[in-house]
Every structure is written in structure tokens, then in C-alpha cells.
TrEMBL record:
Record protein name field: Cytosine/adenosine deaminase-related metal-dependent hydrolase
Residues in the signal sequence: none
Keyword S-adenosyl-L-methionine assigned: no
Xref: InterPro entries: Amidohydro-rel, Metal_Hydrolase, MTA/SAH_deaminase
Listed transmembrane segments: none
Any Pfam family matching the protein: Amidohydro_1
Gene Ontology MF terms in the entry: hydrolase activity
Domain Amidohydrolase-related, first and last residues per copy: 38-339
Keyword tags: Hydrolase
Family: Belongs to the metallo-dependent hydrolases superfamily. ATZ/TRZ family.
Amino acid sequence: MSVRLLLDPGHAPAERCAQKADLPPTLQSVPLKPGDLILPSPVNAHDHGYGIRTLDFSAPDDALEVWIPGLRLRPRTDPYLEALVAFGRLAKTGIGATMHCHNSLNADHLVDEAGAVMRAAGDVGIRLALSCPLLDHDAWAYDGGPQRLQPFLSEDDWHALSGTIPNYASVETQLAAVEAVAAANTSPLVDVQYGPIGPQWCSNALLEAIAEASALHGRRIHMHLLESPRQRIWLDRRFPDGIVPYLDRIGFLSPRLAIAHGVQLRPDELELLAERGVQLVSNPSANLRLRSGIAPIASTIEHGGLAFAIGLDGTGLDDDQDLWREMRLLYLLQGECGLTRELTAGRLFDAAIKVGRRVINATDAADFTIVDYQALISDALFDDVDEAEILLNRMSARYATRLVVAGREIMRNGELSRVDFDAARAELVSQARADLPRLERQRPLVHALSAATRAYYASWPGVS
């Protein structure tokens, strides 16, 4: 047989296994071929489960705040089908675990939608962390909400859009909905978490209640934090002593917390987060595509060793949900220009596997991806080059040949074992196209809202 078993990428070379008995028990019945490489499957530690991707519903890349109104054009489709396609697309790349930040903003629908999402994860066979959305400040504009945009909209557009301002449920109702979702969960492969969208969209009362509930129930929290320059400016105004120290004072910072993006974090904030055991999830493609910048991952090593993971955020480099390429992008972006690399291959794989599993609350997971390693090194003159370096330089989804999650093979040669991905995708697209008349009516208003948002933030001192 002769396959490679790379259990600790970047820290130790692969073991050469000549017989099935040399493999972990969950892999001994999986068909393998000479030249295969087996490694623990990385985790997509931050995503939104876009079955229909943002460009497909006419939300092109832009500055984050200007881009957000485009999400109003997301077509109305079956939540189960939307999640099934998103999770299936990921599993086809050889990734079997994801953090899903659900996009519903209606607490009345959360339990039903979350149930559909969990069922989709079970049908595909992936491991899932479900971050339940919590917010009570409107996402139209920081520093005052929708009324701040009124001067930048025509009277007709304001009249049409003002009727869409949501009424958010009480803090108690929202937290109760999360607990109802958790109570309905029967899968050992699913972890339900609190999902405050971001401090700019949450009141102090909501943030404090989440911190208290997390401590009481031992439930993890997954939150966006300091993604864009505009968020940095606004949160500095709202919290003159600092948003991160405020979160610390209310007991929000703990090993149960993961924060996504963190592009605008400062050295002192990195140190405090590291001291409290918080994990940072980096999303390099999304941060580049939405003009937020590059997260200070290299600085996390210097400032207390803040643990970090990696996520696609639904906007990978080529819109292909290829976490392998995302890992490469982060590795290159954070390489710096010194003679010695601080972000080593070992640290990067630890981020993608070990810290990623912590983020989804699955530290004991035993999930594996099988790679056609022989294809990756077909022209190699030496057979002893560090496998982790080969993977970081050449690996992409097309080389992932099998995926085993919790002992079950859920993908083989790019095809899902448990669901008909092509049929599901065709039905999802059909549902989305059936919603086109509504979307066509909404597009002019959404474009007006995006333009008003751009003008509003451009009016801030020091913002271009």
C-alpha cells in the first residue's frame, strides 16, 4: 500500500504506512492507493453558508459597509436547501467542519431555520458549529442607525426604505431562542453558540447578557470584531476606554470566545485577548475583497501568542470555497520580509486544525482528508521535502480525494456520498430565479442605499 500519515503537519514528517493496520481504526476500511497522504481535516472556522453566493445575487465586492446593503438582494430560498448546497460545496473540497454564522435576523424564525441548517449538516455529514445571530442595533449605519442615512437619500427612496427598518426582539427573547435551538439539537456533530453580530450592532445590555449567559451555560460565543476602519473609528467613539477592555470588564473575554476578522486590533488589544484565551479567526480573502485590510496575524505571535484559526467567510479568493488556497494566501500575506519566518507551516496548520476545532467546540474530532499526494509531487526529484510545505505551496481542492468525518466517508473523488449535490444546487438556483421579480424591484433601492452609505461614511472626518 505505502501511504503517508501526516498527523502533525509542520511539526513532524509523515509516517510511511505499508499496511492497513498502521492506520487509525476509522481509516482502515477506506479505500486508499499508493501515494495517498492522510492528514487531519482543517476547519473552516468562520462562514455564512451562502448556497447562492453574493456575486450571484448582484452584491459585488466593495468596502464592507457599502457592500452590506447588497445582502438585501439575497433571494428567498429554502433554508435547508441553502445550507445543504453551502455545506456540500465545502465538503467537496475535502473540508468537513465549519462555523456557520446564520443570517436570519428574525428571532421568531430562528428555531425553525436553525433546525433546517442542522438537518442539512447531518445529511451532508459535516461537523457544524451554529452561531445564532443576536443584535438589537440596526445595521444600516453606525452612530445612529437609519436616520443617519436619510440626508443622503431621495424622499421617495427614504420612504420606501424606512418601511423596512426591523423591530428587534428583546434581549430575553433572543437569548431564549438560542437556548431553544440548543435544546432541539440532537446531533453530537453540532454545537450551538451565541452569535452577537458585532459590538457595533449590539447594545451594552445585550453584550452583558450574552457574557452572563455564556458563563452560566458554558456556551461558546462567536462574534465579528473590528473588521473595518469605520468600525474602529465608531467603536473608539462609543467606548473611549476601548472596546476590548470594555468586553473584558463585563466578562465577555474568555476561552469560550472566538472573534472573526480582527483586522483593526492593536498590540495592547492582542495581548489582552491572548491573556484571556480568546481565539481570532482570520479571513484573508474576505478582508481583501471588502477592503478591510490585512489582519495582524504575525503580530499575534509577538504579542502574547493569540491563538488564531482560518475561515472563508463565504468570500474565498475565487469564490470557490477552497480553504487550502485560503491557507496559502494567509501564509504568504503573513510571511513578512525577514530572514526567519515567524508564521511557520506548523503554526499555520495548528491554526487550521487544532485552533479551528476549538472554535467549533470539537477538540476531540477525528476527521481526515485524503490527498492525492503523488500528483502534488509528480515531478519531484527528492522524496523527503516537508509535506506541510508541499501542501501550503500546491494543495487545492482538486487534490482532495476523500473526506472522512466521525468515521464516515462523506466525499470520494469530488462527489458527495450521502446527498445529490447537483440536484440540490439546481433546485436552489431554480428557487432563487423564481424570486427574480422581487429582486428586480428591490435593486434600485439597494443601489440607492449603498450610495447613501458611501456618502455617509465619506462625510466622517478623516475617512476617504
